[in-house]
Amino acid sequence: MIRSGELKPEEHLSTQGLADKFGVSRSPVREAMQVLFEQGLLEQKLNRGFFVSATVTIEENDAHDDQLPETMSDYHRLSEDWLTDRIPADVTEQMLRERYDLTKAQLNDILVRATREGWAERKQGYGWRLLPVAKTAEAFEQIYRFRMLIEPAAMLEPTFALDRKIIEEQRRIQERMLATDIRNLPAERQLYNGSLFHEELIKMSCNPFFHISLVRVNRMRRLLEYRSNVDRDRLHGQCQEHLAILALLEKGEIIEASYAMRRHLDGALSRKSPLQWSQGVAANRRVELVK
Can you tell me whether residue 40 is helix, strand or coil? Predict the structure, then answer.
């Protein structure tokens, strides 16, 4: 966020706000702040907390992007093992700590995040159960079909009201994605920005149940999307479609924006659905057999 300019020089960092944003407890956020402080990216002010260093520039940090290692976090190791059936559905904390060499606090943060994203739950009495809610290609497609129902409909709610601050902020993010961020940001952050766009727009329905539902299914689908290689060329088209929807909303063309949102989600499903990929592969194989 600092490298991309999302966090500005001298901006104050909220520990709780960042913990909520990334779905973790405050402990790893404080540890990350300390690391960034030691690297000179943050400044610590007495009784006031951490601030982005006044000397940080976007260009300086972008120049070091190629030095950042691509590592798989413990959270992603666990989710990958669950997706590929290398661990059972019923697990214990002791088993997970030994398998991934984690402390109690580290494992707790991972399980809290998995619970928030909808694919883990604590069993009654002892242990944890990993849930297949977004593990299959069918579930991934069902999530998108659910979104195709609620997101366009939310714009047509009688309580729908444009929020200029949301429009302006999302335009800024999408334009910055097109200008630099698609090349520079990690894949996980790209996915986050995409989810944020849809979650912020559905807030304008002023119906909290639309927003709660979308946040929940977005968390679920991340389990599968974390595994995919982000197509940065496709993201250009996605950002342009986002900007087109914002333009329609700003002009007050709400019905047209609703149709555009449905087309956008339908196109995303056809491009990203693992189910359609597998069907396409099967169809190609049948063609080859006929030949």
Answer: coil
Distance CA 73, CA 79 (A): 10
Give the predicted TM-score (pTM) of the model.
0.66
Q: SS3 of 45, please?
A: strand
Domains contained in the chain, CATH given: 1-61 (1.10.10.10), 70-130 (1.10.10.10), 137-273 (1.20.120)
Q: For residue range 245-263, list pLDDT tens digits in order.
A: 999 999 999 999 999 999 9
Helix ranges (H only) for 39-177 are 58-62, 74-83, 93-100, 104-116, 137-155, 164-176
Beta pairing, strands 90-91 & 128-130: antiparallel
Q: Residues 63-93: pLDDT tens digits? A: 333 333 334 578 888 988 988 889 999 999 9
Alpha helices in 23-130 (DSSP H): 26-38, 58-62, 74-83, 93-100, 104-116
